[in-house]
Amino acid sequence: MYAVHRHTDASRRMDRHSTDGTTARLGAVAALVLASLGFLLPGAAAADPCEVADAGGTVVLPPAGCDYLSPDEVHLIIDGLPTGTTIEFKPIHKDFICNEQGAPGACSAAIPPGLCEAPGGGLGGNVDCFDSTLEFEVTGTGLLAGFSRTLSIPAATEVHTGPRTPGVSPQSFDTEMVSLQADLFGDPDFDFIQIRAGSAFGLPSPGHTTLTQKTNGNWTVDSFFDITYRIDFQGAPGSVLEGMAGSTSAGLQMASNTNPCDVVDNGTGTVDLPPAGCEYLSPDEVHEIIDGLPPGTTIELAAIHKNFICGNPIGTCTEPLPGGVCEVPGGSLGGNVDCFQSEAQLEIIGTGSLAGFSRFITVQLDTEVHTGPRNPGDPVQSFPSRMFRLQGQIFGDPDFCTLNLRAGDQLGLPSPGQTVLTDNGNGTFAVDSFFDISYEIDYVGCPGSMLEGFGGTTSGTVRMETGDPVAPVGVPGITGVWLWIFGALLAATAVFTIRRSVA
After folding, report:
1. Can you tell me the distance from the alpha carbon of 293 to that of 353, in angstroms, rounded to the nearest whole number?
2. pTM to 2 decimals?
């Protein structure tokens, strides 16, 4: 296991105590060597949330397998609602499918079906055309408090990118969202929702992309768009939105390679865990159901663990917690015990003979986490964490007559992890945390469903993480054996300097 560190100016400062000249020189040289090696040695950098395979010295965009998030902002519906009332749409833009239909006129460039990019566009680089999904966590405020939905809306998108030079790292270029259109009709709450963004609709949405090659040949994609959007909607009869309709325009930033988690200091120089308002994602992996399915068929479950509600309402915690309290001392790691209710939001997709099966399901979870000791007040607090218990189940779903999720040491499914808290200097801490979850999924398919007759138990492991760690910056062009040679040269320089200082 390794700690995922957020490097800030504070964490990079070296202590400079007033000592005799020789000791000071020795300390400075040693610090230089250690700092340099810390930035260069393999394993010092954290994994990147958006990593894409090389394609001829660059990458194909949009970045396959990555999500664009808006951690600090939400789309809003304001127009057509009572004063003081809003509908908030927390977005994830994902599941990019390149020009699958090849429909004439759907894109400003001629791109064959299945391809993502072609030269052209308003920025002198490429045109990208693709289908995708906008997934929204929808929440009402004011008079609509308590209204909550998860919506998944198909979208068609065209992006223009500036020129880049394949084979060079980094590659940095302007981007522009030319058109994004998503439509939903006949929903129980929304007769229709229409979402538009991009310069083609008079809604400028500029951005920028930087590609940086890693030592394994893959590329990290750091990309954002400053989206100007318009949402038109009409409430459905019989819904709490009945009689409401309007058109709202506003802006927000969507970015890849990000899942920041900043939590307010609890007044003691640290934070309460679990981190309120944050989400644990698994960007590169999915839970899987394999057992009980035909060969070559799986059910993939992409999970988001979120909405932590502190306390011990069902009495399963190993330590007594008052209602609303998140942590008490104790646990197997000698620090704290965290007990809370939460939810797993699952995007479920079938493969093989279940291709075409797709669902969004939310499972309520009972969770207990144990954490190691930390020193409140320290600018960086790093400690081990363990998922001690995570369990949830649903019954009576149209497709899953039974679906049980289990993980954690108490259930014989070890799930170790690490947490790093870094003081942001503004009254908040950045939380970078992960768990290597060993999980078990039991399920039984329902009569009349595509899953009828299927059932079984599948075990596996997946990493769930929150936070937006900043990877240490390496030296361009220095990789592999050259990295070690460079480190050796640094060490030799240090020895020479030390000998001269002592002499």
Report:
1. 9
2. 0.52
